[in-house]
Fold this sequence. Notes:
tt1808, chain A, two-stranded antiparallel ribbon, 12 strands
Amino acid sequence: MSSVQSPRPWTLDEFFAWQERQSERYELVDGFPRRHRMMAGAGNRHDDIVVNIIGDLKAKLRGTPCRPFTADGSVKTGSDRIRRPDVGVDCGKREPRGHHAAIPVVVFEVLSPSTRSSDLLVKDAEYRKLPSLRHIVYVEQDVAEALHWWRRTGDEEWELTALAGLEAVVDLAAIEAALTLRDVYDGLDIAEPSSKLPPPGPR
């Protein structure tokens, strides 16, 4: 991610006021704007996976207090940090002119070679500190695999489930919804994992 030079750290209000005038998406890291990776141009596969997740969650959450959001929305991971997951679920009151999720409960990141380390190391550490977050899902692009971090309500301990194969289920218990990896990769020519493949992770 490239950065925008700023003489001092920005407040969230300053950042969002500036962001509204930009043609590209940015995140806020330690008070400084950083160009969001998606604006470099994601491929069709990445976009198709995001659309599949959003569409499935939208249908499953209809009539509930929760709703999915795209990377146009954001998650506040600190007083000077704003992140833009590929897909998220907000179960709080949505402010029409707000900029970040009120109560983020689920985030999805679709992994790519250029962002894998940042997603799995830097962002992951930030996400897991959020009190409201219950599910963090990292989805591979080229093989039917995902990593699912989850925790029970009232429990601060995170548990990790490695998912493999199109019939594997992402159980989003906190929002009473579930997606199979077949749903996630719908319409895509996706490889099934082999026993020789390691689980997703920094490579």
